[in-house]
Amino acid sequence: MTDIFIAVAIGVTIFWVIRKILIMLATPPPVIDPGEIIEVEHHYRCSVCGTELIVTAASVTETDPPKHCREEMTLTWHGGT
Ligand SMILES: [Zn+2]
Q1: Model confidence at 1, in pLDDT bands (50, 70, 90)?
Q2: For the chain, which residues make up each domain, given as ranges?
Q3: Per-residue pLDDT at 79 exceeds 90
Q4: Ligand 1 center to residue 70 CA distance, Å?
Q5: Strands, E, within 2-63: which ranges?
Q6: Are 73 and 50 in contact (CB under 8 A)?
Q7: Å from CA of 67 to ligand 1 middle
């Protein structure tokens, strides 16, 4: 009898987790506020593979450098604000 309760509990848990994941995937990302985007000129380089990236517009709320090869890119030059 205990096995049935354990099986039902596991089943409900798996159903709940899958439901949460599907809701998260179905939710569209938030709308970007144009007022929070500023023009910049940031040059980044990946310290792992050497890929270079120039960012011309950035969010004022997201100040972390972009990632490449699962590492944060190194800021090599910046102009503007
Ligand atoms: Zn890289």
Answers
A1: confident
A2: 2-80
A3: no
A4: 8
A5: 37-45, 52-59
A6: no
A7: 8
